[in-house]
Amino acid sequence: MERALQFLVMLDGPTDERRILDAVRQAFPDATPVKSNSCDLRGNWLEAWTNEDHDPDLAANDDEDAFLYFRWRVEVTPMADGITEDDQVALAKGLVACFTAHGWTPIVAAAFEDRV
């Protein structure tokens, strides 16, 4: 599996993993729960983690790297064969729309982030 297809969504907003996963499952009915912080989604394993570097003051800065200090780190790792960069771009766009619709701030970090 090509590592360049893995991506992160740094997320500032919700207070717990359950809310993140609930939002994903609402936006993507094909998502299958795996653990309390993860689901299978379109050939990917999506996991929501607390960002160990979370700092609300640094996240609120106008600095271009402020997203590194957002509260959540959502990791999306391809697990199925045949996933393409176009598939991952579409999924990343869908996740951004999902999180934005909930009033959260998502930033995608990926080899293909300029396409999102």
What does this structure look like?
By secondary structure, the protein is of the alpha+beta class. It is 28% helix and 28% strand. It contains 3 helices and 6 strands; from the N terminus they run βαβββαβαβ. It has a 6-stranded antiparallel β-sheet, with helices on one face. It is globular and about 40 Å long. It starts with 6 loop residues before the first strand and ends in a 7-residue tail after the last strand.
Short characterization:
By secondary structure, the protein is α+β, with helices and mostly antiparallel strands.
Topology:
Elements: E1 7-12, H1 17-27, E2 32-35, E3 38-41, E4 44-50, H2 56-59, E5 72-78, H3 85-101, E6 105-109
Helix pairs in contact: 1-3
Helix-strand pattern = EHEEEHEHE
Biggest sheet, open or closed, and with what strands and sense? 6 strands, antiparallel
The structure class reads: alpha+beta
Task: Give the overall average pLDDT.
Answer: 93
Strand order of the largest sheet: 2-3-4-5-1-6
Number of helices: 3
* Helical amount: 25-40%
Rg over alpha carbons:
13 Å
Oligomer: single chain
Question: What percent of residues are in strands?
Answer: 25-35%
Number of DSSP strands?
6
Distance between the termini: 21 Å
Shape: globular
Please mark out the parts with pLDDT under 50 across 5 or more consecutive residues, or reply none.
Answer: none
Summary keywords:
single chain, 116 residues, alpha+beta, six-stranded antiparallel β-sheet, 3 helices
